[in-house]
Amino acid sequence: MATYAIGDLQGCHEAFQQLTELIGFNVTKDKLWLVGDIVNRGTGSLPLLRFIMKLGDSAVLVLGNHDLHLLLVAEGFAQQRSGDTLQEILEAPDRQTLLSWLRQQRLFYAEDEYALVHAGLLPSWHIAQAAELAQEVETVLRGEKYHELLLRMYGDEPNCWSDNLEGYDRLRVIINAMTRLRICTPDGRMEFSYKGQPRTIPSGYLPWFEAPQRASSSATVVFGHWSALGLQVRDNILALDTGCLWGGQLTAIRLEDRRVFQVPCARRSVAASQR
């Protein structure tokens, strides 16, 4: 049995098929850890969603910002943006089955010495706390009042964590950190507009995983979301978004020995501002 963590798919169905063939994925004994952003921008979101849903317990998926965006669009709480490729899902005969399944997925997952999240964790959150906070969101998203959460989900404020936060402000901070975070101040104030490389981060900010005394550093956090960061294999982080959608590569890493597997992706002519 092997566990393969795979970076952002974003509708790149053909590359995903090639990668699973390369690693020799066996659905009866192997497991896939998917860092989220399964859908959108690529042309194969619908078959990807269907395939991953059928994997059942052989796949662990954490939700990304594009996956949540699909849920908002489907409920009429957001409009499709330039470059979105969600219409095929929205018009599919099994639309409701797919969306209901997506809504049941995790925001965060931890097992042994590894933790899986789409974007990042705030510096003050240790692994057990992150799991509890994610569960707060998951419970609402899976429940009868999920519409209210989706309606109030978008927004950049509050931009930092406090144990005193309540209601949708509290849930929004958890969602934003786990699905949108790239950089923050050392004390955990988030900034969401920056998408560039680490060497040009604005003064006063740093990558979330380089925050001093980060409470989650006891585990190896597996994440994606930041394509300009590229592949990072360190003792306590595995960054796996290698820009497949933008003509880069789709990356998998076998957690047991940290062997990296990659397949090239077709280049897509998209303005960087759409990333």
UniProtKB/TrEMBL annotation:
Q: List, alphabetically, the SUPFAM superfamilies matched.
A: Metallo-dependent phosphatases (SSF56300)
Domain named Calcineurin-like phosphoesterase is located at 4-82
Top-level taxonomic group: Bacteria
* EC top class named in words: hydrolase
Under Pfam families, the record lists: Metallophos
| Classification via InterPro entries | ApaH (IPR004617), Calcineurin-like_PHP (IPR004843), Metallo-depent_PP-like (IPR029052)
Q: Which GO terms describe its molecular function?
A: bis(5'-nucleosyl)-tetraphosphatase (symmetrical) activity
What exactly does this protein do?
A: Hydrolyzes diadenosine 5',5'''-P1,P4-tetraphosphate to yield ADP.
What name appears for this protein in its UniProt entry? Bis(5'-nucleosyl)-tetraphosphatase, symmetrical
Q: Which gene encodes it?
A: apaH
